[in-house]
Structure formats: structure tokens, C-alpha cells
Amino acid sequence: MLKISNTVTLQAWEIQLTAIRAQGSGGQNVNKVSSAIHLQFDVKHSTLPDVYKERILALKDSRISKDGVITIKAQQFRTQEQNKEDALNRLAELIRAAMVVQKARKETKPTRASKERRLKGKNIKSQTKSLRGRIKH
């Protein structure tokens, strides 16, 4: 069971975990031990509330397929247990991040002082450039 918030939890049967061989260079056991974890979670067929499902499926994340399946590959650690824990934590973080509502930006106008500073800077730059021209006798 994976706890997302105080009211939302995921059951173990909803998350599919598969042990695979990790990529990259390794030591003596690199071709023998399946220490990486491949996590798959089907959002559409899960017990998550509809609000969660809509927000997750609206995310522009490469880990979410068109069918609504989240795929996470964890191979950072040397042991299968640590990679399993890492994959579950990353899934929980992804779901929590989908529920965070961004604060709407208020449009503001530049202050009078900032406009004056900008114009003064432009004037100084203009004078500097005009001094680079040909000297007229």
C-alpha cells in the first residue's frame, strides 16, 4: 500500500513491479543480478479519485503514455529493495505534483520610476553610440 495523502492510498495490486537488469557499466554481477525495477501504474483503471486521474493525464510528462500508463525505471541503487522504494517514492511524488495548483499570475504595470530609469539608460546608450560615429569638422 502506497500512501499519497491522508485520504488517498494506492493498493499493492494496482502497481506492477518487474525486476530487470540495470543498464550501464557494473561489476561482477552486472549480467547476473536483476537489481533495477520497472514500475508500471495504469492511471485510468486505478482507484484514484477522478480529480487525480484528470490532473495526472493532463500532465506533459514523458513517463505517461497515451494509454494512461505511468512507467518508472529505477536503477540508481545497487539493491533491488532500494530501487523498489525509490520507484514507489517517485510515483508518489509524481501524483502529488499533479495535485499542486499553480497560483495565477497577476499582471502588473511597471512603475513610473522604473520607466524613467529605462529611458535614462537608453539615452545614455544612445549618446555613447553617437560618439562612435565620424567626426565632422
TrEMBL record:
Q: Does the keyword Hydrolase apply?
A: yes
Q: What Gene3D superfamilies does the entry give? A: 3.30.160.20
Enzyme Commission number(s): 3.1.1.29
The UniProt regions of compositional bias labelled Basic and acidic residues, in chain numbering, are 104-116
Entry keyword set: Hydrolase
**InterPro entries according to UniProt:** Pep_chain_release_fac_I (IPR000352), Pep_chain_release_fac_I_sf (IPR045853)
Q: Which NCBIfam families match?
A: PRK09256.1
Q: Can you name this protein?
A: Aminoacyl-tRNA hydrolase
Per the UniProt record, the source organism is: Vibrio japonicus
**The gene coding this protein:** arfB
